[in-house]
Design goal:
Helices cover 31% and strands 27% of the residues. By secondary structure, the protein is of the alpha+beta class. Helix 1 packs parallel to helix 12 (442-460), helix 3 (97-116) packs across helix 5 (149-164) and helix 3 crosses helix 12 (442-460). The protein starts with a strand and ends with a helix.
């Protein structure tokens, strides 16, 4: 017989949106029965088997521990919380700019009170770099950023989890197969059971994009296609960017290419960090991490260079386009490909020998290859232009030995139609976090969770 349980509020997904929804509801409405359903493992059981020695590439785990589990895909990120409306999502369009910033600062206070208090808050306010960028046809976006680091981010998540355990029921390794309406309630079904709740918050994250598409189709919730970001991760000696990272830690810099007038931007800067693999729906892409612990820092800095592509009718599958490029990289390189910038410019593939003889020692064991066989010419031309533009404000960026890892793809879920409360056309069904297509960052996703929790609390009052 199927095991069915009843709750007041059901949260699908234990990423930042789900965590902060549960956190806020627990404090505002302590009598509510709250369940959190998560396809991945609890935090302490999340471990990727790739060790770089015995296991060097993805082995296709049933559930990817990097992308799923308590903390979501951001659990092993470098823990950057950007407090800004200039990037990271469009939450402000629904709740207003001031409210969005207020909630991001609120999330920051929770993080700093749960283990992140010793970390640094960086800001672009008053920086001379903004002028230097403008003089070189670059734009520095405004932001304050709290850098927790991968290590401290983990500690914060541990502390939040321990506090939530006393009043929230977590169901880990529970992949929700379907979400349906059951009268005025919501029914989430999974292998071996189901949960019924008066209110449902969906915080599926980017890894739940395909599942969420089906949910929206089944429940007749309107959606529209979002963009996809495609590019590479650049790895250089840390000293080249140190005058920027020492002041700002992460700088979001945008360049408009002369050839195609496309926007290329820096993303996820990791001073003295490492380059890592990322698994999204079985596709291996590249990402970066950094640490607060001095002993775990490296001699390199890495960051992504991404080109955003928006598609018009009749094509709607922007994520499918990005996936096809990533699959091509996986086919040619067995995973992530790495290439020296000098080799790319000379039209030749990199070899392990040339990389080993270079001045930049790779922090990821990737396959030497030729990114021009993977990335579309328009995107690659934009990346090359951007590297030369960055070389004007950080000389050495365009060195021959600069390493480019590919591909990096940032998938954005389709935008789900929600109202100013982030509620769908079905009363009591909310869509938050990156899964909704409304947010694209830790700070925005967390803020959306707090916001929805407060809307639910108002109804319960």
């Amino acid at each position: 017989m199927e095991n069915r349980k009843k709750y007041d509020v059901m949260i699908i997904g234990a990423g930042p949106g789900g965590i902060f929804s549960a956190w806020e509801l627990r404090h505002l409405c302590p009598d509510l029965r709250i369940a959190v359903l998560e396809a991945g493992h609890e935090l302490k059981k999340r471990k990727c088997p790739i060790d770089g020695e015995k296991i060097k590439t993805c082995i296709g785990c049933r559930v990817c521990s990097i992308m799923n589990g308590f903390g979501g895909a951001g659990a092993f990120s470098d823990g950057k919380y950007n407090i800004t409306n200039d990037f990271g999502g469009t939450l402000y369009r629904y709740i207003g700019r001031e409210k969005a910033l207020e909630l991001m600062h609120y999330v920051d206070r929770i993080n700093t009170s749960h283990g992140g208090g010793g970390t640094h808050m960086y800001s672009t306010a008053g920086t001379e770099l903004k002028k230097v960028c403008m003089q070189n046809k670059l734009t520095l976006l405004e932001a304050s950023v709290r850098h927790l680091g991968t290590d401290i981010n983990y500690v914060v998540l541990e502390n939040l989890y321990e506090e939530l355990l006393s009043s929230v029921d977590f169901f880990f390794d529970t992949k929700v197969e379907s979400l349906a309406k059951n009268g005025e309630e919501y029914l989430a079904s999974f292998e071996g059971g189901s949960i019924l709740a008066d209110t449902c918050i969906v915080s599926a994250g980017r890894s739940g994009s395909k599942w969420l598409e089906k949910v929206c189709s089944d429940l007749k919730i309107p959606t529209k296609s979002n963009r996809v970001d495609i590019g590479v991760r650049v790895e250089i000696p840390a000293v080249i960017f140190s005058h920027i990272t020492d002041e700002l830690y992460e700088s979001k810099i945008v360049y408009r290419t002369e050839k195609f007038e496309d926007n290329v931007r820096t993303f996820c800067m990791n001073p003295r960090g490492i380059v890592v693999n990322e698994n999204t729906n079985g596709i291996i892409t590249v990402n970066g991490h950094s640490f607060e612990d001095e002993e775990r820092k490296t001699e390199n800095t890495n960051f992504a260079l991404l080109v955003s592509k928006h598609f018009s009718e009749p094509f709607k599958d922007s994520n499918g386009y990005g996936e096809s490029i990533a699959r091509l990289s996986n086919m040619l390189g067995g995973g992530v490909i790495v290439q020296r910038f000098g080799d790319l410019e000379r039209g030749r593939r990199s070899t392990r020998k040339r990389i080993e003889e270079g001045t930049v020692h790779p922090t990821l064991n990737a396959t030497p290859g030729d990114l021009s066989l993977v990335l579309p010419k328009r995107i690659l031309d934009g990346i090359i232009e951007m590297i030369y533009a960055l070389d004007r404000i950080a000389p050495g960026t365009a060195n021959d030995d600069t390493l480019l890892y590919g591909v990096e793809v940032k998938f954005y879920n389709m935008e789900v139609e929600v109202d100013r409360n982030l509620e769908t056309l079905h009363k009591g069904l909310y869509m938050i976090g990156d899964g909704s297509g409304v947010t694209h960052s830790l700070s925005h996703a967390s803020a959306s969770g707090v916001y929805v929790a407060r809307r639910i609390a108002e109804r319960e009052a």
